[in-house]
Amino acid sequence: MAEQVGVMGAKYAVLQTNAKTGNVVTRLPITGLTFTHTLNAAGTASVGIPLFAPEADPAVLSPGISGLVITRDGVPVWGGIIWTASADIAAGTLTLGASGYHSHYKGRAFVTGWTARTVEQVDLLKSWFTYFNADNGIGTVTDTLTATGAKRTAVWTRYELKNAGEAIEELADNVNGFNFRYVPYWVTAGKKVGHRFVMSSRAGSSTRTLTHRVNADVTRVGYDSTALSTVAYATGADKGNGERLVGIFENHELAARMPERIAIGSFQDVKETATLVGKAQALINAGSAPAAIPELTLYPGQYGPLDFVPGDYVAVDADAGYVAFLDEFAVTECATTVDANGTESIRLALANKELFINANAS
Question: What is the pLDDT along the chain (362 residues), one digit of tens a residue?
């Protein structure tokens, strides 16, 4: 079926697009779909279509070339590029695997190098997208970006072939960094989809409370202390004599509570010690507390797939034996599944809010 009716009448459609232009090619008949929004990453989508449908035409529908946009009640809620297709001949289905627009930049590189010193990070991002859009790109729009006050340095030679996706991720993953996502939107309703790069503060959103067995089911909680660290070392570029630049940051408060534990990060293209110190501090922030990693499923009909954006904060209230907390968490992933009957299910993956705090109290 080309359209599905979900909970409370939500109607889903999946559109094949031209990945370069965003022009709509056709609406795909779908047997089910799952899509995820993931914090500072591409996110994924999996869409099933009938194997023998006219739209399942390999001359037109091609992994790596075709784009994919998912709409809910006519509004684009997910967009990206189809990278895989898997045909189950016995079942008569074709499963399309897509990744968000950020996956395009994981396949781009600064082939002529890049030099920018002490530049507002938003200006750096805008210049990068302009550079890649001009050379056979996907037309990412940056019209909502505003200055943050954080200045960065990026220096790569052409021989380093710095990956663009990694450069964006590393820029975000700094003290005073940011969260990012790519948001699809209608350029011309029903005919052309655009997408824009959106930044948000790591301060997160105002906190909403999700209570186990009231408006959500906490399905599992993992606890992990492997990232704990009292001292972090970030190594950078070779100084030319076989030695590498090093940035160091310590968490004295945590060291008073546990034996020394060292974290080491390698950033071979970083050529300034001050930047490495910031990288070390980010490692310390990520290892400042044992990680509780809950997953929960939202109760049907109360929320949509865009109500919780990765990076938002939520308070979770749960009391189930060993799992007993009322704590704040950051949303790291929002996954939406729509089955063959049109039933919508939304799952959130969370992580400790402390992991996303940009300052070390010690």
Answer: 444 434 446 899 999 999 999 999 999 999 999 999 999 999 999 999 999 999 999 999 999 999 999 999 999 999 999 999 999 999 999 999 999 999 999 999 999 999 999 999 999 999 999 999 999 999 999 999 999 999 999 999 999 999 999 999 999 988 788 999 999 999 999 999 999 999 998 877 778 899 999 999 999 988 888 889 999 999 998 888 878 999 999 999 999 999 999 999 999 888 889 889 988 988 888 888 777 789 999 999 889 999 999 999 999 998 888 887 778 899 999 999 999 888 999 999 998 887 665 444 33
pTM of the model: 0.86
How far out from the chain centre does Cα 125 lie? Answer: 16
Distance CA(309)–CA(205), nearest Å, equals 9
Strands 291-298 and 231-238: unpaired
Among 175, 152, 170, 171, CA closest to 358? 175
CA–CA separation, 163 and 156 (whole Å) = 10
Nearest CA-CA partner of 149 in 183, 119, 184, 127? 119
